[in-house]
Specification:
Elements lengths: L19 E3 L5 E3 L7 E7 L3 E9 L4 H6 L10 E9 L7 E7 L9 E9 L19 E8 L2 E7 L4 E7 L5 E2 L3 E5 L5 E6 L1
Parallel strand pairs: 2-8
Antiparallel strand pairs: 1-3, 3-6, 4-5, 4-7, 7-8, 9-10, 10-11, 12-13
């Protein structure tokens, strides 16, 4: 598209320093099998963050999914708690890898990773979408597995199939179960 005439605009910005902490993938993440049981936390203008890791099982999912996502209300057994230092220049996004191997001795399992900024207030989401907000806490259910699961359902049936996360090949003989809101198994089959 060609403008009818040349247009120049000036934009003025201030030096407001922002502080934030995020984790990838939303509330639930399956670790990449090639990632060596490490999970990234991304920060900006934070010198450190606290991370807590809890071992959980499928029976803990309903309590986790309901929230609230605060340290005191999280299910599972605390297996790791530490403060990690970050390295980075001002206003630069920094990736810090959290080593989950000590919490997963077999290399497989489910964890809740709770990360929170250190040294600044942790803000709750504003009531109005127009209000500024900087995330300073991340809570993620993390699975370490080699099995990928895809499922589709309609009003009558559920179709599930399993694949290897390492090379994408189909897997047979994998037991798949479907649990309701109360973690009670309501269906089971081999994929």
């Amino acid at each position: 598209q060609v403008l009818a005439e040349r247009a120049t605009r000036s934009i003025t910005t201030d030096e407001k320093e922002s502080h934030w902490l995020i984790a990838p993938g939303g509330r639930m993440v399956v670790l990449d099998p090639a990632a060596n049981l490490r999970f990234p936390i991304y920060t900006c203008n934070l010198g450190a963050f606290r991370v807590e890791v809890r071992q959980v099982g499928a029976e803990d999912w309903p309590a986790f999914a309901r929230g609230p996502f605060r340290r005191a209300s999280l299910p599972g057994r605390l297996v790791m708690s530490r403060t990690l230092q970050t390295k980075g220049r001002p206003d630069e996004m920094v990736e810090t890898m959290v080593d989950l191997a000590p919490a997963l001795p077999s290399g497989f399992g489910q964890l809740i990773v709770f990360a929170e900024a250190v040294g600044i207030p942790v803000l709750e989401r504003p009531l109005l979408p127009s209000e500024p907000w900087e995330p300073r806490r991340a809570v993620t259910w993390v699975q370490a597995t080699r099995i990928g699961l895809d499922a589709f359902s309609d009003g009558d049936s559920l179709l599930a199939w399993t694949t290897s996360l390492e090379d994408g090949r189909p897997l047979s003989g994998v037991d798949v179960s479907l649990a309701g809101d109360n973690a009670m198994v309501i269906g089971m089959a081999a994929a």
